[in-house]
Amino acid sequence: MEQFDVLVAGGGSAGLAAAVSASRSGAKTLLVERLGSLGGMASASLVHSICGLYFLPEHRPGEFCNPGFAAEFASRLLRSGGARGPVKMGKVDVLLHSPFDFARLADEMIQECANLQINLHSELIGIDPDLRAVEIFCRGTRKRIGVRSVVDCTGDGVVAALAGHEFEREPSARLQRPAYIFSMQNVAPQAIADNGRMRIARLIVGAVRENRLDRGALGAALRGGHQEGEVYVTIDLAATENFDPTDPACLTQLEIDGRRFAGEISEFLIERVEGFEKSRIGSVPARVGVRESRRVVCEYRMEAADLSKGARFEDSVAIATWPMELREQATGPKLRYPDDNLPCDIPLRSLRARGVSNLFIAGRCIGASHEAQASIRVIGTCLATGESAGIAAALQAGNEDVSAPAVQAGRSRIIAAYPVEGI
Question: Which 8-state DSSP code applies to residue 344?
C-alpha cells in the first residue's frame, strides 16, 4: 500500500492551496479531485471574480489581506494576463479572472512541486476510522493508500461525513442558494455600462410580469468579464422545500434548471436588449455552484459576531475581509458589512476537526455558523485557509508542533523560498 504524509481531498481553491503548501513544507502529498481540472468554483462553476483577497478599500485599498499563497496566486494570475484588478465593485475590491487561466495556473503550480501527486477524475469513497488509510475510486478502479494527515477541502465535508465525524447543516429554507453562471460573448461594451444593467433589470421585471421569463430571472446579475465583449450572467437558483445539495436527485434538477434558465435568459437578452443582438452563449459551467452544504464541527465555530466586530484570536492563521454575503433567497444577495469594515481573524481551531488530531478542514466547510460561512466561503479566503490547513497537516504528519505560531513560521519559510515579484 502506497503511503503519503498528507492527503488533500478536493481540488478547488482551498485544496490547491493546501496541496501546494503541504508539499512545499516537505510532506509527500496526494491531491484527489473528482473533476478533470482544478479550481472548483473558480473554474468549473465559472465564478469569475476572486473575492476576499483585499482589505476593504476604506482601510488599505488594493492591498492583499493574506500574505502567502493567496497573494502569490493572484499576482501570478495577473502577470500571466489571466486576470485584471483590483476592480472596485460597490464597496469592495475584487480580482476579475478567466476561469480557464485559473485552472491553467493551478496545473502549473502543482507541477512545480516534486513531491506532490495529483489524481484527477478520482473520488474518496472510504476512510478508516483513524484516518490512516483511505480508498480512492476512479472509473471502476479502487485503490487503497495509507496517510498520516488529511485535509478536507471538498466543500461538502465529504471526508468528515465518510469518517462519521460531526457536521452541521442549515435547514433547507435557509441554505445559501446555489449559483448557475454562464458567459456571453460578442456583447457591445455599452450594453452593461453606466445605466445598462438597471435598464436590463427593468426589462427582466417586465418579462416576468408578462410570463416570458420565470420569476427566478429577477435575481439575475450581469457583470463584465476579463475579456472585452464578455459578460457573465449569474442566476441564483430557487430551491425546493427539501433542498439538499448533497442529494443526487436535487443536484441533477439544479443542473437541468440552470441550463434551462441560461437558454431562456440568453434568448431574451439577444432579442430584447440593445448591444446583445450579435452575442451568444460562450461557456456554461461544468457543475452548478453550491455555496453551502455541510459545515464540519471544529474546535471553534466562527460566529456572525466575530465577523461583525473584527474579532482577533491568539491562534489566528488567516484573515477574512469579505462581508457576510447572505443568499438565502433567489433574488440576489444581502450584504452585512463588519463594524468599521475591520478584518476578522480566522483561528487555527476553526480548521481542526474537533476530537480528531489528524483531520484538518479548509474552504467553505470550516467551523463556522451559517452567517459566518457567508463571509469565509469566498475564493480569496479559501486560498488562505487552504494554505494554513496544508501547512498544519504537514506539521502533524511530521510529528511536529501544530500551533498557530508554527503554521505562521511555516508560511514565512515558504514565502522566503518562493518569492514573487511585486508582493
Answer: E
Q: Which residues of 145-176 are buried (b: 16+ CB within 10 A; e: fewer)?
A: bebbbbbbbbbbbbbbbbbebebbbbeeeebb
pLDDT value for 422: 65
- Nearest alpha-carbon partner for 151 in 13, 248, 53: 13
- Residue 51 DSSP SS3: coil
Q: How high is the pLDDT of residue 292?
A: 97
The DSSP 8-state label assigned to residue 247 in this structure reads -
User: Half-sphere exposure of 85 toward its Cβ, with a 13 Å CA cutoff?
Assistant: 33
Q: What pLDDT, on a 0 to 100 scale, did the predictor assign at position 59?
A: 66
In whole angstroms, how far apart are CA 423 and each of 18, 76, 233, 316, 357? 20, 10, 32, 21, 34
In order of 23, 51, 241, 332, 359, the CA distances from 216 in angstroms are 44, 24, 16, 10, 39
For residue 336 the three cell numbers come to 452585512
pTM score above 0.85: yes
Taking each continuous run of H as one helix and of E as one strand, the counts in the chain are 10, 20
Output the CA torsion 76→82→88→94 (10° steps). -60
Q: Are strands 116-119 and 123-127 parallel, antiparallel or unpaired?
A: unpaired
Could you tell me if 9 and 102 are in contact, meaning their C-beta atoms sit under 8 angstroms apart?
no
